[in-house]
Design brief:
five-stranded antiparallel β-sheet, 2 domains, eight-stranded antiparallel β-sheet, SH3 type barrels, about 500 residues, 23 strands, alpha+beta, single chain
Amino acid sequence: MGKAGAATAGFEAARAVADAVLYEGYLLYPYRRSSIKNRVRWQFGVLTPRTWTLARGPADAGVAGSAETWWQQTDCLVESAGDAGDTVVDCRVRFLQLQHRSVERLLPDGSYRPADALDTGSRPESSFDEAVPREFDATVPLGDLLAGEHRVTLHADEGEDVEPLTDDEGRPVGRVVRRRWPVTALLAVSAVPCRTRTPLFRLRVRVENRNDTFQVEGTRDEALRVSPIASHVLLAVRGGAFVSLLDPPAWAAEAVRTCTNQHTFPVLAGGPGGREVVLSSPILLYDHPRVAPESPGDLYDATEIDEILSLRTRTLTDAEKREARATDPRAARILDQVEGMPPAVLSRLHGAIRSRRPVPHAHAPSGGAAADGTTADGAAAERPSAPWWDPGADDSVSPETDRVVVSGVPVSRGSRVRLRPRAQGTDPQDAFLQGRTAVVEAVLLDVDGARHLAVTVEDDPGADLHRWYGRFRYFRPDEVEPLPGEGRDA
């Protein structure tokens, strides 16, 4: 495979989100080494040695990348603009290589002794694990992939770096030794044609840990030294376009069902509406994910809210901040970033409205409304006379008895439904509930007049506990199919 082509410029549009995936969970608030949750790190996209992984149980075949395994597989669909020979695929594999930082104290005789921590004055240092980002590019014409699988070995070399440490007066007091172990992975790319009216091809990208010398008796910490961490893939296509697996056109729906993604999942990335770039991530995402423009910088916990993390970071004591700065240079940068954040920047984190839509009509309290905001007889429903913030508005809604018409069938508390989560604009985790049956617990109305169904999944062993706590899953009426039969409380 040759060097990546010009299409990889599209990777830059997806870099912010890809970097968030790369460092997700790298260091969690409160950013201190002593924090329990920072002692079990590297939770996503970890490709451990094959023999070590299999010795600990059967390989997990799920989509999410939180289960440790020795391989990842990405299947996605490429629509060719012409002859397959004119379509070129660029691939970029990215992961972290673990690096251990050891602090050593300088002794009077000029030798060094390992130390858990070293106080140099204003710059404390602690022994800790860091990580180095690695990227590998490969380019291959689609026509070559149709002729056979292309394989390339990816190798991150071992290494050792030494950084002298001095106190505040410039006197040498020790050193930091950073050591890396070799990481070897295999990238295998192939393609097959799909049976569709438009030229469509299923592209398969597989990444494996190819370390074959690691002992099965080794610990997880030792296995991480020779493992790609937060492994993910960026793909770009020239002379073609990708098809969304979350929201495919009808003619490609059957081809989507032939895709098998394991330990990672591809979504369209790059600019809004573009189909030239895919990010295959061990963390489930939507198509065209992006980092909020209000975000002032990476807090290394991308699934959390910047405002909450920033405010909590500001509450750390001086002693806790000192420990955090000694834990990791990235933690020190986070503290500097948060402490130097102007009030105007912090206020922007409080919230933003991304889009506005017309407020639909509400329901008639007793007759029920359809998903389009009309009553069962087709008349426009009246909004409650009291505003939502008025306690009197409570009398205008009754989640226990209200109903909504779905596909001509009244649905209310106790109705059984089959879940059909929409592909976009919802929690990606809902995809795991596709086709499951559920019991409606309440019919709810939000402040915009839209209906929602609170449900419990029927085969969930914790359903009774969720019902007791009032912790439900929520779906729109157009995301369910009514099932025959009487409801639980009907």
